[in-house]
């Protein structure tokens, strides 16, 4: 985690310290305690003053020194949405690290927006956690500046979009996972293999489908665009897109479902059409949620080590907090692995 | 939520205010600021002093006045364990109320013990949340005293044990749910009905099985003790106890599985033995987790409004915090309801 930092980052770090709190105050035409109040997220500052001070903090790349920053024994965990069974695995990972280090976890949800609201950033600034782990959720420029000026480190887990080269992030080898899932189906003898992707705005779902295409191409199989559908990682679209794929006259004999919930929706579509898994249709999921073992038939899936990824993200953000200079570009991808259960078999003899 | 309080509670409330902080300090032989430090969970107090002050606070039933207690914009949510898919529904409910009221949720886990550790209570005292929601997790006497002395209200959701008459709690009508599940099976024509309960130390699982027995007795059916097995609310025991029940020569034609995860384990046991659900075996779950709709066949289950229960618990704890006098006995049970899907049918004709 403590890789050598590029020279560029160190230089930026030094220049950031040139403006002091007193200089910011002078330039803003306010007292130093007022700047301090803004930094501490106190409510008793006029909105216009606050905006002016924030703007100057950002312009000067002001960064609070360690000694000034008294931290609460908290770590913030922010989700894009709490709907998924997925979220629990992540919470458990962050909770494990928090318990080891005597911290408590503050949980919030950006409620369907991909960046948390302005109020959220103010609350974080006010409670001064040791760090922030963002799950499938990015920060805009002003939010990043706000956290940086308070010396609150952050790490993005499994980025939905391109987090930018200098944002530390923890992901999984999504492309490799899509490749492994599809190669498994090819090795079983399938040649018409469909896919249901997650939302295209998420890098992880793009990477999975690209891995699927790479497997087809390297095996010399045609990639039929009609066999690739876009979902949203929920059960419902697995069902709907599954029905469309399976009602085609040239239906696929195997489908890479993008994630486990979509695989369960696909199971339902198959049942409705009287198709048996795996005799008539092979299905591969992605994630390996607990439920993958429990469904009938137990699901072949690509295991994503969600709890370990969350642990790594929490440890990284605490590392960054201990050594402020090391906020260098850090991108870690943990390995995915294929777990073969009972939802995949050789294609039916037609 | 603001029901009239019993006289006893009001009296206790008055006498609690007779000892002041200065008096506690005098009796402990320390300064008033030292007592204040203990109340604020500060680390710079000798352990022996701290213990003496805590003991006196408890003995006098000291309760911090509203004006003294500056609260952080936090609400604490404590789980017995974060394993269950169940937990997500609860987190979502508390998160909903927190968002409405501008609070953030601090999540912790009592890690398999049924009361959270001492360190946890100290951390809560130090961060001064608006309130604490405990899920399937009780507090011991000294923890209760500690929160009470800091005027931090708490509510227990779905108590595992008997929380005591004066602990505010939110539950569901577990007994009614067990009754409704079993009556549904009786109405379909089943006469040999098994049950897999949750752990017997949890009141909710006892109540469900008692409802099951009441349904059998009021229908004039014998309650065969050999058909009732004890699980732990996890998939694995549903599977193991399911195998034992289904291997009996006089196997039941229907089983009330205690919760949804045990029902899924039971599905697996039935598959392994070549029994079809619902043709050979009817299954009823409890909870109505999202997965209940997704499995094959979709599960008939008793819906427990987990998200609404969590919302009610969060609202209650905030109400208690706003009006300190109202910490009267409060026990709310939200209604459960039977959701009939495809895992139940008339018994096989033998």
TrEMBL record, chains A, B:
Lineage of the organism: Bacteria, Bacillati, Actinomycetota, Actinomycetes, Kitasatosporales
One Pfam family hit: Peripla_BP_3
InterPro entries: HTH_LacI, LacI/GalR-like_sensor, Lambda_DNA-bd_dom_sf, Peripla_BP_I
Keyword Phosphoprotein found: no
Record bears the keyword Transcription: yes
Source organism, top-level taxon: Bacteria
Protein name, as recorded: Transcriptional regulator
Keywords noted in UniProt: DNA-binding, Transcription, Transcription regulation
GO molecular function: DNA-binding transcription factor activity; transcription cis-regulatory region binding
SMART domains for this protein: HTH_LACI
Start and end residues of each HTH lacI-type domain: 19-72
